[in-house]
# Entry
Amino acid sequence: MTTVEPRMNARPTPGQCSSRAYGLPAIRPTSLAQTVQAAARAVDPNTVRPVAPHNGKLGFQPATLLTVLAYCYAMQIYGSADVEALLRSDSNLRPLCPDQFPTARMIRRFRRENREALQVCLEAALHFVAEQKVAQGLLTKVNEARIAEEARRRIIVSMFTDSMELDKDSGADTPTDLCYLIAKQ
# Structure
């Protein structure tokens, strides 16, 4: 069937997508870092458990840790030791932790105790990335269910990556030692 009306692809622009779903301000952030910072600020501080004593150190504040972890997971950096190393070496992230850096252990604990808040911030980050892909024509729409699923998956990948690193560090000779004990009996 032929129509006389012009066919239009109705792709939303990034400005048309709702930012209110993630508690972001009406003015759209223009970068992934700004998006993650806005999402972390929008999380109710009473719902986030701190993992360090409240001593004023910026790097240990829950909003800072939410920002760093959501940003790293959105950039596919999953290991807590890798996040710690990145904080020490990246000049763009260093202002978030100017005096002391959270350790990999602290990062793991924070993720474990604040998984829901991290999920919200990571969803905001992935939503921003998806909007960018829509604007570039790489995607046709933003699928909220898929974003939530991907955020959950990335948090699980980070936990798996850490467990593999901890297993590796706890002793690679354990299987050999067990075989020796079994063979001795």
Observations:
- The chain has seven helices and no strands.
